[in-house]
Sequence to fold (329 residues):
Amino acid sequence: MPLSSDRPLRTFTAGLGTETNTFSPLHVGMEAFAQTFLYRPGEHPPDLTEVSAPLYVLRSRCATRGWSLCEGTYAFALPAGRVGRSAYESLRDEILAQLATAGPVDLVALSLHGAMCAFGYDDCEGDLLARVRAIVGPRTPVGVEFDPHAHLSRAMVEHADVLVAFKEYPHTDFLARGEELVDLLERCARRDWRPAKAVFDCRTIGRFHTTREPMQGFVQAMRDAERRPGIASISLIHGFPWGDVADMGAKCLVLADDDATAAATAAEFGKKLIAIRASTFTVPQPLDAALDAALAHPDSPVVLADVADNPGGGAPGNSTLLLQRLLSR
Fold:
């Protein structure tokens, strides 16, 4: 049954994630979470962060609208290799136990990454969401805010009612997306509404910086389309190229009032991305060609980026090939 418009909502939130470079030898254990972002109930700071927007938004709703909030664990680690199986299972089961102890809630708002892999689990988010769904049942709305550098899996789409990815890269809109997530979950709780979901697989791997064209215009087009009748949310899942899993790659996700609108809009934006993808990034050069261009450039400094060994993407940052070639020149 839908809830009355003035009844305060009882809510639960938790977060778990990291960006997993499956080619990386860097191990992610509990110490990596502890060193980065690990807060258990009663420990969460008041500050807004990229990974804790659902918590921040729900705290605000509690203060201004009288809602109640059960705060679960928030655990995030910096990008690296696969998460240890015991570390993932321990944090997952901790959150699930907190949810079970909370009892009946009106909505569940999670902060996940979308590209977290552990030993034994290529799809940590799908695994966690399936277990959350088993606890709360089919009628409690479950939603996720996540990073667009994700692997959007069938399990994620099946077990979450609402999925909202950041639109901006670099990620500057996490608060706006957290507000969107909670707004849509409230709509689910109060109106007994569940969005139709459609995914269009763009079958591409790319780098989609939204601070410049053509992606800047693409993001604006998504925002404009969200004002159309029947469309609730549009997300472009960029994909994470350093994750060697079955679900990797760019995809368009649409939440709408009906299946036909969702499918047509997802296809519209998926085909739009395919049409512009050749102009969305700078084509990499072979190393010797890049060195030729760098050495011939009249100004300085000149930056050479070994993007595959980028620590920000989970790599160890220990390749010396570029340095060796540069010294030899």
Remarks:
- The longest helix spans residues 85-102.
